[in-house]
Each structure stands twice: as structure tokens, then as C-alpha cells.
TrEMBL record:
Keywords: Glycoprotein, Glycosyltransferase, Membrane, Transferase, Transmembrane, Transmembrane helix. Its main location: membrane. PANTHER family: CORE-2/I-BRANCHING BETA-1,6-N-ACETYLGLUCOSAMINYLTRANSFERASE FAMILY PROTEIN-RELATED, CORE-2_I-BRANCHING BETA-1,6-N-ACETYLGLUCOSAMINYLTRANSFERASE FAMILY PROTEIN. Coiled coil: none annotated. The lineage of its organism: Eukaryota, Viridiplantae, Streptophyta, Embryophyta, Tracheophyta. It is found in: Membrane. The chain crosses the membrane at residues 6-24. It comes from the Eukaryota. InterPro entries: BC10-like, Glyco_trans_14. Pfam families: Branch. It is a single-pass type II membrane protein. It comes from Xanthoceras sorbifolium. This is Core-2/I-branching beta-1,6-N-acetylglucosaminyltransferase family protein.
Length: 355
């Protein structure tokens, strides 16, 4: 038989456990997603307006007649990060020798201090604001990158959004010629034919979690602007043609809905829905419906894809990551742990940068 003190102690422990279980959600502070203030939203709207006006003026002046000698189209590489850009040496090798064919823009969460950014990225940072998963701040950051790239250089005709865990799978020239063509005639006509450029972004209506994601902000909240039949899922990272980049920064209608905070945090991935939904509603024929950034979702941890580690890095891995079911090989891949840099640099000259 148990003595009375033990029985009383056990009863007290059970009682306290039950009290904590049922009352903790009301007592402890609930973590809410990061919201976007009116001041920040107005600040972004001003940036978007300036970028739109600048792009319109460039179009009106006919870019081929600007003060450039034999201008060539450029790719804007947009890095969205909340940690150190550890793969900078690999990207430096990737960009080497192509200085007049690309621009780099970095949106770094200002609440995170980066350790001595590599010279490649040092002067490429745009005015940034805080970002957080499961919040519309990642949408705002991507739109901010697009607007800055549009405002900075009218020769930017493609915009590739990447993360700090992304790596290239091919040489720069391979990617450049895949987008613009490999002849002088095609490059010369890239500006006059940009209205036909395709964007590479995953757009899907087959996600089994789509119903839960649609009502993450509350039932019927997305109506009438975004009916369920128009709601789409896709990848966070993409390559947009210039006309679609402009479409994104001009949008106010869908943004009013997607900027709202989510109630169900387990089904809230705004950045995976805003861009696919907007482009699907506005110009589905102008989009590939697939992404050119390879991600391994077979092993997910807390909503994150598989992270490659040093023992996995090999030529065979790069070759396998390139393979796709589309007419294009994958251009980029994620996500790689920071300690993959050295093994990746070892195989870069003979594998990654050789097509």
C-alpha cells in the first residue's frame, strides 16, 4: 500500500498537469506571425510606383537607343536571406567573366547580423525589412527585390529569386543562353520580343493540402478576389520575365488578401501561394507551370525540404539534380548545409561549371 503522502503528491502532480494542459494556451503568450505595418506597406507602394514609372520611361525611350554600346539583356539574381551567404565563393566562380550580363540584389533580414559579406555581395544589398516564415513578409521581400532590380537597370529582363542555400547546377553561360538564346540575333531581339518571354514558376492546383491552406486566414476571407478555384500552390523560388515582374509589383488587388495574417499557422505558406495564384489568374499561358530550382521534398522537417550534407556531395549528385521532366534541365538546387561549400568548390570546375 502507498502511504498517504505519496498519494497526495501523485494527486497534486496529476491535477497540476491537467490544469497546465487546459489553461496553458490561455496563460502563455501565443506566437503570432509577423505582420506588415501600414507605414511599411506605404513605403513599399512608393518603391513599386517608382519602379513602374522608371520601367515605363525606359520602354518609351526604346531601350535599344539608350546610351549603351550594343546592349545585351541581363539576368537579375535576387537573393533572399536571413543568414550568411556562405556559398558566395561558389557563386563568384559561377559569375566570373560575365560581368556585363547580370546584376545581383540581396535582401537580408536586418534583424540578423551577417558576418563580413563576401566582396561579391558586399555592395548589392537593398533596403530590407524583417522577414518571417508563415507571414506575408516573404512576399514583400521578394516584391522589394523585383522593384529594386527594375528600378536599377532597364537591361534586366529576367529575375531569378534564390535563397542563401541555393547553388547553381550549370555554368552561367548555359543558363543565360537557355533563357535568351545562343545567337547574336536572338540576343539583339531579346528586348523587342520580351512580351513573349516565359516565366518559370511552379503553379499547381493538385496540392492535397490546398483546402487547408486556402482557409488559413479564416473561412471565406479570400473572397471575392480569390475564389478557391483560382487558388494555386507553387515554389517559393522562381525566374520571372520582366512583364511578370512588373505585374507583381503593380498588384494591389490580391495583395490586400495575402497580406492578412494567418490563423492556422500549420497551413500558412503565403509566399508559396501569392505568386502562383497571381500569375495563374493573370497570364497562365505565359508561365511554364514548373520551377527550375530543384528541391527534394521526400524528407521534410518542419516544412523544410531535405538538406544535403557534405557526404552526399558528388558529381553524381549534381548530375542527378539537373535531371527534369521538362524541356529544361534544372538550373539551381536547394537546400545545402553551410559545410557543403568546400566539397562543392572541389567539384565546381569539372562538374558544376562544365556543361
Amino acid at each position: 500500500m502507498f502511504s498517504s503522502p505519496y498519494i497526495y503528491s501523485l494527486a497534486l502532480f496529476v491535477s497540476l498537469s491537467l490544469i497546465f494542459l487546459f489553461l496553458a494556451p490561455q496563460i502563455l503568450p501565443i506566437k503570432h506571425p509577423l505582420t506588415i505595418s501600414l507605414a511599411d506597406d506605404l513605403d513599399d507602394l512608393s518603391l513599386f510606383r517608382n519602379a513602374t514609372i522608371a520601367s515605363s520611361r525606359a520602354a518609351a525611350s526604346k531601350i535599344s537607343h539608350l546610351s549603351f554600346s550594343n546592349p545585351k539583356p541581363k539576368i537579375a539574381f535576387l537573393f533572399l536571406t536571413n543568414s550568411d551567404l556562405v556559398f558566395a565563393p561558389l557563386w563568384e566562380s559561377f559569375f566570373s567573366g560575365n560581368e556585363h550580363l547580370y546584376n545581383i540584389y540581396v535582401h537580408a533580414d536586418p534583424s540578423v547580423k551577417l558576418n563580413n559579406p563576401h566582396i561579391l555581395f558586399k555592395d548589392r544589398f537593398i533596403p530590407a525589412k524583417r522577414t518571417e516564415r508563415a507571414s506575408p513578409t516573404l512576399i514583400s521581400a521578394a516584391r522589394r527585390l523585383l522593384a529594386n532590380a527594375l528600378l536599377d537597370d532597364p537591361l534586366n529582363l529576367y529575375f531569378a529569386l534564390l535563397s542563401q542555400t541555393c547553388i547553381p547546377l550549370h555554368s552561367f553561360q548555359y543558363i543565360y543562353h537557355s533563357l535568351f538564346g545562343d545567337s547574336s540575333w536572338k540576343l539583339f531581339n531579346a528586348f523587342s520580343t520580351q512580351s513573349k518571354h516565359q516565366s518559370f514558376i511552379e503553379i499547381s492546383s493538385e496540392d492535397p493540402n490546398l483546402p487547408k491552406r486556402y482557409i488559413a486566414r479564416g473561412k471565406n476571407v479570400m473572397l471575392p478576389e480569390v475564389p478557391y478555384e483560382d487558388f494555386r500552390a507553387g515554389s517559393q523560388f522562381f525566374i520571372l520575365a520582366k512583364r511578370h515582374a512588373l505585374l507583381v509589383i503593380k498588384d494591389k488587388k490580391l495583395w490586400r488578401k495575402f497580406r492578412l495574417p494567418c490563423r492556422n499557422m500549420n497551413s500558412c505558406y503565403p509566399e508559396e501561394h501569392y505568386f502562383p495564384t497571381l500569375l495563374s489568374m493573370e497570364d497562365p499561358r505565359g508561365c511554364s507551370l514548373y520551377t527550375l530550382t530543384r528541391v527534394n521534398w521526400t524528407e521534410t522537417v518542419n516544412g523544410h525540404p531535405h538538406t544535403y550534407r557534405p557526404p552526399e556531395v558528388s558529381p553524381e549528385l549534381i548530375y542527378s539534380l539537373r535531371q527534369s521532366n521538362s524541356t529544361y534541365s534544372y538550373f539551381f538546387a536547394r537546400k545545402f548545409s553551410a559545410d557543403c561549400l568546400n566539397p562543392l568548390m572541389d567539384i565546381a570546375p569539372d562538374v558544376i561549371l562544365r556543361d
